Amino acid sequence: MKHFFYLHWQDASQALRKMLRQPLGSLLNLLMLAVAMSLPVSLYLTAGSVQHWVGKLTAAPQITLFMELSAEQADIAAVQSSLTSHPKVASFRFIGRDQALRDLEQRSGLSGVSQGLEGNPLPDAFVVTPKPAVTPDELDMLQKELSGLPMVEQSQFDAAWARRLHGLLDIAVKLAWFLAASFGVALVLITHNTIRMQILARQEEIEVAKLIGATDSFIRRPFLYHAFWVGALSTLCCWGLSTLFVHQAAPAINEFAGLYGENIHLAGLALPELGVLFGCSVLLCLLGARLAADHHLRKVRPH
Fold first, then answer.
1. Mean pLDDT: which of 2-11, 145-154, 261-270 is highest?
2. Are 279 and 217 within 8 A, CB to CB?
3. Is 206 within 8 Å of 219 (Cβ atoms)?
4. CA distance 243 to 38
5. Using an 8 Å Cβ cutoff, are 45 and 246 in contact?
6. CA 237, 19, 214: angle at the middle one, nearest 5?
7. What is the mean pLDDT of residues 287-303?
8. Domain 63-158 classification at class level
9. Most confident option among 2-11, 147-156, 262-271
10. With 50 as the cut, is the pLDDT of residue 203 above it?
11. Is the pLDDT of residue 58 over 50?
12. β-strands 152-156, 63-67: how paired?
């Protein structure tokens, strides 16, 4: 057992020393992988912070139902009953005519404006908040449905911003998946090509090793450890780049959020997230190395 661990330690240390003997080439390769990795990571960090910010916003898509001036208490009760039982309505608030006029006076600073009027020109209204899971298309349908309630004269709802927000979030999610998938494929291909070149450069050495009875797993092991170090070190480089991104982008994002009276905290990768990134990178590199090694070892035959 000690001999088994010693062989693995020896292969791992030799693979690392070979990378260190070519510092410039190894550094450029690691930086290339780290930059490619930092793109989906940076998008993930930004999207996570923005989603947290959006989750704290009190503003939500709302539909305002204006009743007819001739609406009676029975009509208001019927609308309340319909809104209470509607499956897509999260909550609603009733604003009476008198309250609406008082709110108008307070907002405009024209106290006593109602004294110059023959009557209250404002209608009763319901402010309806749909459930968060309702999509923009469903919001349009909900508005049309609520407009048909008894004695509802008009409904008001600006769905444009909700549709834009939904579209941006959808694009961000698709872009994140695309970048992650592209990075995964690129990491496998780059590692595959690197290991293939190493195997071709050591083809005679591999043939001699096979002549003296070396197994494929013994020959493959140094290349797998090389791939392990590539995945591990590129992840650390990506962590540094993402930390630099957070440090540089946080002030600009906070300044933008300040225009809306909010504060966005752009945080770096947490330890669990870094662990997942580390594991995925190493596994993808090992996959590329294993595919390259198995493919070429089948072709290498001792003379």
1. 145-154
2. no
3. yes
4. 10
5. yes
6. 130
7. 76
8. alpha beta
9. 147-156
10. yes
11. no
12. antiparallel
**Dist. CA 266–CA 90, nearest whole Å:** 31
Closest CA to 190 of 229, 225, 230, 223: 230
The reported pTM is 0.61
Give tens-digit pLDDT for 110-120. Answer: 555 555 556 67
Residue entry with tokens 């293939």? 196
In whole angstroms, what is the distance from residue 287 CA to residue 62 CA? 50
Long-range CB contacts (< 8 A, 24+ apart) of 165-174?
165/54, 166/135, 166/136, 172/43, 172/47, 173/47
Q: What angle do CA 42, 43, 47 make, to 5 degrees?
A: 120
Q: How far is 176 from 191, CA to CA, in rounded Å?
A: 22
> How many degrees, rounded to 5, is the angle at CA 67 between CA 66 and CA 71?
170
Distance, in Å, from the CA atom of 85 to the CA atom of 237, rounded to the nearest integer, reads 55
Q: Tell me the C-alpha distance between 101 and 113, whole Å.
A: 9
**Residue extents of the structural domains in the chain:** 2-57+163-297, 63-158
Per-residue b or e along 254-274, where b marks 16 or more CB atoms closer than 10 Å to that residue's CB: eeebeeeeeebebebbeeebb
